[in-house]
């Protein structure tokens, strides 16, 4: 094969490959019925917000053909032309592919459907993500009059510009009877921004005794935000202040509010922008779910000191919100509030834990000359904590005068027991508990006296339920033994006594019956013998011997 044939074969192969790729690309692209992305542009993020972006590819193919056609495809995400990692196909459904990505930063996000080879860009969709600008919150509205007449000519609205990328627009309505009676015509003007200050002039001539309402729209790119609505009444009051005709003046709110907490006191410091005189201050605070307002006189040093007596609902480590607004003139309007939330200073706990066992009920185990004691306890009520409890301290010492206090620190407050190991059996100990937070510890709990086995006082023995039980057992045993002894002694005596009363006497029952000098035999005699013996007399005396049991 010559050189010309080889070159011709290469061209034919390349051409066939290109045609095949084009056919495949066309065939795959033709099977895509829709490629959608949600949400649609423009997407506006707030500061710290994340928005998920979802792209869905739909096809009219059956499930089997869909998997065969699109199994080798992939979806890639790009932000401003840079590929993003960890953004792949989430899952396949019957006839669709779903891919999601979370947008955290502004930019142009593009999702590209890639074919089997990286060069095949089958389809793509893009969405623009921008940052939502901060709305205008701090402004000053000042009326301007026609010479010395009490007629409003226009109102000047000014505020601080937050970014050079922000574009503002002021929308306002003026109505004599109020915009609730019939629809008001809304107008808008573009302010003038120089450096960091923006100013807009609302023409109010001929609208005395009318209501003015306006708000400001801030735009950055395709995203915008809207401020709250300010409402004013174009009516003069009889307040006689200097400078004149500034009753409509709304001062800037305070800035850079800082709160310092110390022992049972709070110090508030702030900065403000005032034009003419010292401002009056309105302080609203919320503690323990109750709100209170304090209005002070004009202040110069921009500091407010509050003790626990001035703060209703004061509680150590309580959560309080302080809101501050200022007023330049006693008949003017207060500025918007600047609020800040803080926690009050902790204090040492006011109550100690409670030991829930006694000397005899605390679990005890013995080991040679030592014993191990487990002390059980419970926390005081939460209102006595003074903050957040960090640890429980158990301290114990022997009764000897020169012994030192030993300490055990417990950080696991969920466990309501602690073991003291290696106590001497013959000594007695004193034990107490303390609750501690970052500001200190509570007082000592009621001491637990642990007595030694030989050193135990008698009063404690008699007062002990365990020892009473032992004494009861010993007394019961002794009583049983006494009853048994009495029974053993008395039963034979009763038996013999009964026999003596029922059986007649025998010769053996009469003492000295067989002695020669006193032997008298009483046989059965008749009446003549009895009379003869009576006449002759008894040799032992005057006593008449018994006859047949008769005396």
CATH C-level class of the largest domain is: Mainly Beta
* CATH homology group of the largest domain: Immunoglobulins
What is the name of the CATH topology of the largest domain?
A: Immunoglobulin-like
* Biggest sheet descriptor: 5 strands, mixed
Mean pLDDT: 72
Distance between the termini: 177 Å
How large is the count of helical segments?
Answer: 5
Give the number of DSSP strands: 34
Give the overall shape: elongated
Bin the helical content. 10-25%
Q: Which architecture of the largest domain would the CATH scheme give at its second level?
A: Sandwich
Low-pLDDT ranges: 13-26, 240-247, 455-465, 547-551
The number of distinct structural domains comes to 4
Radius of gyration, whole Å:
55 Å
Spatial ordering of strands, largest sheet: 2-9-8-4-5
Structural class: alpha+beta
Polypeptide structure, described:
The chain is an alpha+beta fold. It has four domains: 28-131, Immunoglobulins (Immunoglobulin-like, Sandwich); 144-244, Immunoglobulins (Immunoglobulin-like); 251-343, Immunoglobulins (Immunoglobulin-like, Sandwich), CATH 2.60.40.10; 354-450, Immunoglobulin-like. It is 16% helix and 38% strand. The strands form eight sheets. A five-stranded mixed β-sheet has the order 2-9-8-4-5. Strands 12, 13, 16, 17 and 18 form a five-stranded antiparallel β-sheet that branches. Strands 29, 30, 32, 33 and 34 form a five-stranded antiparallel β-sheet that branches. Strand 8 (107-114) and strand 9 form a beta hairpin. The longest helix has 38 residues, at 465-502. The model is unreliable at 13-26, 240-247, 455-465 and 547-551 (pLDDT under 50).
């Amino acid at each position: 094969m010559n050189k010309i044939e080889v070159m011709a074969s290469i061209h034919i192969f390349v051409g066939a490959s290109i045609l095949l790729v084009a056919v495949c690309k066309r065939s795959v692209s033709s099977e895509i019925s829709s490629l959608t992305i949600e949400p649609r542009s423009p997407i506006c993020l707030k500061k710290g917000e994340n928005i998920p972006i979802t792209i869905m590819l739909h096809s009219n193919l059956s499930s089997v053909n869909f998997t065969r056609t699109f199994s080798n495809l992939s979806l890639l995400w790009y932000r401003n032309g840079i590929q993003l990692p960890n953004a792949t196909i989430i899952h396949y459904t019957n006839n669709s592919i779903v891919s999601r990505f979370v947008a955290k930063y502004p930019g142009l996000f593009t999702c590209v459907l890639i074919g089997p080879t990286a060069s095949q860009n089958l389809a793509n969709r893009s969405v623009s993500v921008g940052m939502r600008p901060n709305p205008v919150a701090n402004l000053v509205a000042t009326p301007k009059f026609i010479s010395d007449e009490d007629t409003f000519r226009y109102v000047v609205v000014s505020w601080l510009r937050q970014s050079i990328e922000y574009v503002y627009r002021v929308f306002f309505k003026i109505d004599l009877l109020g915009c609730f009676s019939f629809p008001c015509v809304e107008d808008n003007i573009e302010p003038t921004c120089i450096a960091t200050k923006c100013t807009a002039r609302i023409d109010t001539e001929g609208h005395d005794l009318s209501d003015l309402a306006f708000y400001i729209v801030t735009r950055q790119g395709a995203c915008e935000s809207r401020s709250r609505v300010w409402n004013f009444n174009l009516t003069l009051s009889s307040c006689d202040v200097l400078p004149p005709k500034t009753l409509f003046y709304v001062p800037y709110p305070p800035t850079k509010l800082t709160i310092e907490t110390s022992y049972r006191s709070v110090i508030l410091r702030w900065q403000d922008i005032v034009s003419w005189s010292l401002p009056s201050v309105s302080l609203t605070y919320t503690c323990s779910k109750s709100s209170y307002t304090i209005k002070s006189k004009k202040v110069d040093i921009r500091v407010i000191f509050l003790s626990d007596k001035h703060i209703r609902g004061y509680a150590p480590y309580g959560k309080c919100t302080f809101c501050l607004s200022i007023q330049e003139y006693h008949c003017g309007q207060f500025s918007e509030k600047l609020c800040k939330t803080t926690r009050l200073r902790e204090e040492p706990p006011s109550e100690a834990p409670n030991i829930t066992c006694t000397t005899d009920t605390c679990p005890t185990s013995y080991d040679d000359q030592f014993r191990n004691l487990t002390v059980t306890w419970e926390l005081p009520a939460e209102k006595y904590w003074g903050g957040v409890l960090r640890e429980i301290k158990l301290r114990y010492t022997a009764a000897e005068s020169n012994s030192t206090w030993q300490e055990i620190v417990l950080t696991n407050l969920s466990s309501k027991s602690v073991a003291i190991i290696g106590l001497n059996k013959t000594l007695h100990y004193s034990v107490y508990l303390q609750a501690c937070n970052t500001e200190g510890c509570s007082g000592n709990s009621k001491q637990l006296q642990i007595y030694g086995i030989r050193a135990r006082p008698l009063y404690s023995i008699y007062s002990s339920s365990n020892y009473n039980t032992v004494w009861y057992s010993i007394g019961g045993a002794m009583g049983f033994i006494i009853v048994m002894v009495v029974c053993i002694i008395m039963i034979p005596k009763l038996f013999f006594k009964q026999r003596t009363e029922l059986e007649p006497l025998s010769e053996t029952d009469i003492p000295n019956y067989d002695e020669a000098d006193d032997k008298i035999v009483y046989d059965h005699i008749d009446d003549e013998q009895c009379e003869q013996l009576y006449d002759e007399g008894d040799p032992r005396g005057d006593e008449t011997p018994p006859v047949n049991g008769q005396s």
